[in-house]
Every structure is written in C-alpha cells, then in structure tokens.
Design a protein that fits this description.
754 residues, alpha+beta, Na+/H+ antiporter like fold, Alpha-Beta Plaits, four-stranded antiparallel sheet, 8 strands
Length: 754
C-alpha cells in the first residue's frame, strides 16, 4: 500500500484538530477563531504530545488561499454603497480610532527598542478591531438591536476598507523602505486609480454578463464563475503590484452590487470556511510558547495599550462624530480586540521579510487575550459610564450635550457645493477611464497596428482609434452637469455666478483638449500649436455630436442601472428600510424587524390577544406578509407564520421583546405603492386642539385616523412611551406614525402638525 503524500496527512491532522477544537469551543461558547488557533498550536512542532505538520510550505500556500477567500467573502458583505450610507459619524470615528491606535502601536514598539518596520506593522495590527468577534459577541449578548451596536458595525465597515488601504501602503513602505516622499504619493495615486477603474468597469460589465448568462447558470456554475472572477482579479491585482487579498476584496465588493450577491455568498461560504479554518490554524502554528514567555512583558503592555487606547480614543472618536457620551463609551468598550486583519497584516510582514520573528506570536497571544476579554469589556461599559457621569463636572456634561445635539442637525447643501462635488466626481471617473484606454492602447493596440501597417499609417490609426475610444468620456467631462438643476439655479440666481460657472466649463474643455494633445504628441512630432488646434477642433466636434451624446447617455444610464440593480431588486422584494427610521433614532426610538417562525405560539392570534404594547411597551407599526404590507394594523389583525413585524420601541423594550421571538430577520418597506410609505410627525396639544384632556384611546388617533402614537413629550422634555389611558394635556408634544394620506387627514382636523 502506497504512503500518503505529506500534504494529505498534514491536511488530515489540521482538520482533525480543527474539528475537535470547534466542538470544544462551541461548547464553551467562545469564538471559533480561537479554536482554530489552538488547533494550529496542537498541530505545530511546538507541542510534542500530538503529531506535527510536516510540509509547512504547502500549508502556508493554503493559508494564503484562505486569506483570499476571507477577503472575497468580506467584499461580498461590504459594498461601496454601504460605505456611503454609514454616514459621516462612522467615517469620522473610524479614522480617529485607526490613526490613534497606529500611533499607540508605534509608540509601544519604540519603547521596547524594536526596529521601525516592526513598530509600523504593530501599529497597523492594533488599528483594526475584529468584525467576526464583535458580531459573535453582540449575537450572544442580544445587543444587535441596540443603537450603539449599529454604530459599531458601521465603524467596522469603514475599518475594513481602510484596512485594505493600509495593507497596500504597508506593502509599499516595506518594498521601498521609505516612510515618505514621492513613492508613497505614487502608491496612493495608483491605489485610487485602480480602485476607480476596477469598480467602474466591473459594475458596468459584470451585471450585464451575469444577466445574459442567467439561463445557463446553476449553483455549480455560479460557484465556478464567481471563484473564477475572484482569482482573475487576484492575478490582475498581483500583476499591477497590489496584494492578492486586495484583488479578492475588490471583486467581492463589485459582486456585492449584483442581484446574485446573496446566492454567491451562500455558495462560497463553505469553501471560505474550509480555507479560512486552514488560515487560522496556520496562525496558531506560529505560536511558540518559549517566545511568548520571553516576550510576556510586551504582550501584557500591548494588551493594556489596546484596552486603554480603544476605550479612550474609541470613545473620543465617537464623541467627535457627534454621538452622546453613553453611546460613545459603549462603542469604545466594544472595539477592544484585534482579529483577522491583524493576522493578515502580520502575515504580510512575514511574507515580505520586513518584520521580526517574535512579532507574529506576540500578536496572536494579544489577540487571544483581547478576544476572551471582549464580552466583559462590553458589559463593563454601562457601569463605567455611570461612574464617569457621576465624576464629570456639570459644565462638561452641558458642553457634550450641546455638541452632540448640534452635530446631529442636518444642514442643506448649497448648490455650489453639490455642483462642484458632482463635477469633481465626473472628471475623476472619466479621466481614469481615458487614462486606462490610452495605457491599454499603447500596450496592446499600437503594436498590432504597427505589425500590419506602415509606420505613418499605423500612427494615424493609433490616434484615430484612441480618440474614438475616449470621445464619449471627454464629451461627458465637458458637458455633464451643464444643464443640471444646480447649474441653472446658480445661473439665474445671480449674474455674478455666471463667470465662475463658465470657468468650470472652460477648465473641463482645457482638460479634454489636453488629453487629445497628449495622444497626438505621443505619436507625431508636430508643433504644440498645431496639436492644440487639431485637439480643439476634435473636442468641439465631440461636444456637438448628437451620436456621441446618445452614446454617452446610454453608457451612464447602464452604469447607474447596474449600480442600483440590487437595491431596486430589494425594494421589489420589500427589503428596503422605511425612511422614517432615521428620525426615530434621533428620538431614542428604534425600528426592528422580527419574523414569526412556523412554530411560533403567536401564530394565529390577533394583536389584541397578544397585547404586545402592554407587555413589552413596543408598538407594531407594520406587518409584511410576502409582498404585501399592512401598515398600522388594527387590533383584530392576526399574525401568521412567515410574517415579519416591524416594531417600534426603545433599546430596553426591544431587547426584552427580542427574547420572545425565535429569529430576527430583515424585512422592509413595500415600494410599489408610494402612498403606503410611513411618516413620522409631531403635533403640539394646545387649547384649540380637539384632543385636549382626552386619553389616547378615546382620541381616535388610531381608529379614526389610522395613525399610531409612539411617544409623548411632557413639560420636562422627556419622551414617554404612551399608555392607552394617558391623558393628553396642554403643551404636550405628541409623536405619531402613519401613512401620508392619514397624516394629512390628521392635519385637516385642525391639529398643528410640525
């Protein structure tokens, strides 16, 4: 009988250890990542009681594949549109935290006398909190429905994309051994260029390809296609000088904007779990107990630095973003760990041979310690806030309250700001496309022409080809936004605006002419003035060409449709959140979705029978049943298996309510009928109000107007969860939710609605 290859026996050992540790850590209710690390330690030569891995090089290759799958799956969950929607709060907080933690990590490294590259990479490792561990902790502790948890998850989204950028910069620094100068600027510029190029081209082509091949695609085919696109981008990213993980993340984020994103995510999940397990096992194999004992001082110091840094700077970052102190402290205490990206960055340093051997085991040890401490730190946030609130001077409290309330005020963007931002976005995108066309033409098309044509005619063909290819983009640069609402408003508002507006057109015209001049001058040795003259004529022809105008419109329309196709599909299926949810958040009320399972004891009962308002203090705003939606359901409406109910309440109320349902799922607003959209309004009870001195039950707001009273502000300014028997008094501010038609019906009843 032939002997097994070392790779197979090693893989068997790894999976056996990982399987056993998975069961153990599941039993202990601990993150599986820690189980994989322990499994890696058991399979390493450092642990003599079990067999050891023989072919470590092959395992390292498999772990690199694991990193690719992890980043690809992360990209599928990420989506660039999600980054835009998290808002300025998460961006400000994440940037503040990352910068502060990098500084702390570098300071700790310099304190111990480590070399500069070790300090820099240590800072990068400490900057990223663990998405996996925080998700697991929030689920286990039942905190996913709370306000601060949503903000933490938004911060993690921003950290994920910044981690990718940081990996690229660290790779550049490692190769160049230079912390400043033109090399860094060049790397950042190249990163931005390829991000825009890949995203724009990917969003334009991939949804079209998937749509046209849908009839021939099964689950098996979809898995193969998605992995083919993933590894194709991995190879492309490596060719242009980026890490393979960066390419996997980019392709995942592109596919995240397609309808098939959820299906791809489910298909890839088992493969990701397998190779991800191998990656984390390989991380555990790097753990050397002797080295950990030797560096126990730095391990404890770094652990304390993470706990202190995230608590202090995480809290300050969230406060800087305009959140109250209690929310900021709960966010800061939740981010006190390092995880996946720390291992990836550490592995990057090892692969580039720029970090010391001791750094990897130290980071693994710190990660294990901080992971175990995460649930305790999350729980510690509430008593810590109570202590800080007691010790904080009243002057500071008032200052923080004013800052948080002021920062949450929404100001309308002026027309100039919006117009200039739109123009800058258009110019950046289309210039990237022009540069890409020119580079590809010089690389592939020009050599082809020179093979089949004489030199002069080959050059002429090159120029014609490139000008034709970039003409839709150059026309868009010059003409886009010249007829927009903002442009017209500024033009007619003030005659002094006309000169700057014309200047924006002229500058874009000069830019387009410059591109054409560059194409001509790079192939023909002619005078600059002649080249400019030819370029001006060509650009003018582009601007007045109706065919180019039509082509440009079609290109942009197709891109926008592809970009919004998933959102449109989600709206059709009822997966878009109600718009009034954001207003509820500002009043300490929240909207959460709960699915009624098939075996729920609530199925078949009416809302009157369940009496959810009196039991849990929550209010059922809507019931989603398939593609049908029941807004402000009456007391006689029954719940059925598969229904999703949208419930309004405070953090405490929703936390108590969530324990009574078996599974929380995403649901959404019905988008087919705009009149069914829900709105949040408020009105003040004055001496002329028909509701003065009436109970909420007798007022008829629910039965007559089909609106729901979700809160009442009394004279002290506190928002009270209303009871049916609550009497509406003079100067009470009543918050109601209802459909647009019913809200206006309430207005016509001579109630002043704000």
């Amino acid at each position: 009988m032939s002997e097994l290859a070392p790779l197979i026996s090693d893989l068997a050992l790894i999976l056996i250890c990982a399987g056993v540790m998975t069961l153990v850590f599941k039993r202990l209710k601990q993150p599986l990542v820690l189980g994989y690390i322990v499994a890696g330690f058991l399979a390493s030569p450092h642990f003599s009681l079990t067999p050891s891995v023989i072919d470590t090089a092959s395992i390292h290759t498999w772990s690199e594949i694991g990193v690719i799958f992890l980043l690809f799956a992360l990209g599928l969950e990420f989506s660039f549109k999600k980054l835009v929607k998290v808002g300025g709060t998460a961006v400000i907080a994440a940037c503040s935290i990352i910068f502060s933690m990098i500084m702390i990590g570098m300071t700790v490294g310099w304190t111990f006398g480590w070399k500069s590259m070790d300090c820099l990479y240590l800072g990068g490792m400490l900057a990223m909190s663990s998405t996996t561990i925080i998700y697991k902790a929030f689920d286990d502790m039942g905190l996913r429905q709370q306000r601060f948890a949503g903000l933490v998850l938004s911060i993690l989204i921003v950290e994920d994309i910044l981690a990718i950028v940081l990996m690229v910069l660290l790779s550049t620094v490692a190769v160049s051994q230079n912390f400043e100068g033109g090399e860094m600027v060049y790397s950042i510029g190249k990163l931005v260029f390829f991000l825009i190029l890949w995203f724009v081209v990917g969003i334009y082509l991939i949804p079209i390809f998937l749509k046209r091949s849908k009839k021939w695609v099964s689950n098996e085919t979809m898995l193969i296609l998605s992995l083919a696109m993933c590894f194709g981008m991995v190879v492309l990213a490596a060719k242009v000088g980026f890490s393979p993980a960066f390419g996997a993340f980019i392709m995942g984020s592109i596919l995240a904007e397609t309808i098939e994103a959820e299906a791809i995510e489910k298909l890839v999940a088992p493969v990701k779990d397998l190779f991800g397990a191998i990656f984390f096992v390989s991380v555990g194999m790097m753990v050397d107990p002797a080295m950990i004992v030797e560096y126990i001082g730095p391990i404890i110091t770094i652990t304390l630095a993470i706990l202190f840094g995230q608590v202090v700077f995480g809290t300050c970052g969230v406060i800087l973003a305009g959140q109250p102190l209690n929310v900021a402290m709960r966010c800061g205490f939740s981010l006190t760990q390092i995880g996946e990206f720390a291992f990836i960055i550490a592995g990057l340093g090892v692969s580039l041979n720029v970090t010391s051997d001791f750094l990897y085991p130290i980071v693994v040890a710190v990660s294990v310690i901080t992971t175990f401490l995460t649930p305790y730190m999350i729980r510690l946030a509430v008593p810590a806030y109570g202590w800080v609130e007691k010790k904080m001077p009243d002057k500071w409290k008032r200052m923080l309250d004013r800052y948080s309330s002021g920062s949450q005020t929404v100001n309308n963007e002026n027309n100039w700001k919006k117009l200039l931002l739109d123009i800058a976005r258009i110019v950046a995108i289309y210039m990237v496309l022009c540069i890409a066309v020119i580079l590809l033409s010089f690389q592939f098309v020009i050599p082809l022409f020179r093979m089949v044509l004489p030199e002069f005619w080959a050059k002429l063909a090159d120029v014609v080809f490139m000008v034709i290819c970039v003409s839709p983009f150059l026309r868009a640069i010059v003409m886009k936004k010249n007829h927009s609402v903002e442009f017209q408003a500024l033009w007619h508002d003030n005659r002094f605006n006309r000169a700057p507006l014309l200047a924006t057109i002229l500058l874009r015209m000069i830019l387009a002419v410059g591109v054409v001049v560059f194409i001509i001058k790079s192939l023909f040795e002619i005078s600059t003035f002649l080249a400019i003259g030819v370029a001006v004529v060509l650009v003018v022809l582009m601007v007045i060409s109706r065919r180019l105008k039509k082509q440009s419109i079609i290109l942009e329309r197709t891109f926008k449709q592809n970009l919004n196709i998933r959102e449109t599909h989600d709206e059709f299926k009822g997966k878009k959140r109600p718009k009034y949810e954001g207003h509820l958040l500002s009043r300490d009320l929240h909207l959460s979705d709960f699915e009624i399972p098939a075996d729920s004891l609530w199925a078949g009962y009416t809302l009157r029978d369940l009496n959810l308002g009196n039991k849990y203090g929550v209010h059922v705003a809507s019931i989603i049943r398939g593609l049908h939606r029941i807004n402000i359901p009456g007391a006689n409406v029954r719940l059925f298996p598969g229904d999703t109910i949208q419930v309004i309440g405070t953090d405490e109320q929703l936390s108590a309510f969530s324990k009574q349902v078996e599974r929380v799922s995403m649901a959404a607003e019905e988008d087919e009928v705009e009149k069914r959209e829900m709105h949040l309004k408020q009105f003040v009870v004055d001496e002329k109000s028909p509701f003065l001195n009436m109970t909420i039950k007798d007022s008829g707001i629910r039965n007559d107007y089909r609106c729901l009273v979700v809160g009442v502000e009394k004279g002290n300014g506190h928002l009270i969860s209303p009871e049916a028997d609550m009497v509406l008094e003079k100067r009470d501010v009543v918050w109601v939710v209802g459909e647009k038609e019913n809200i206006y019906k309430l207005v016509n009843s001579e109630v002043y609605v704000q």
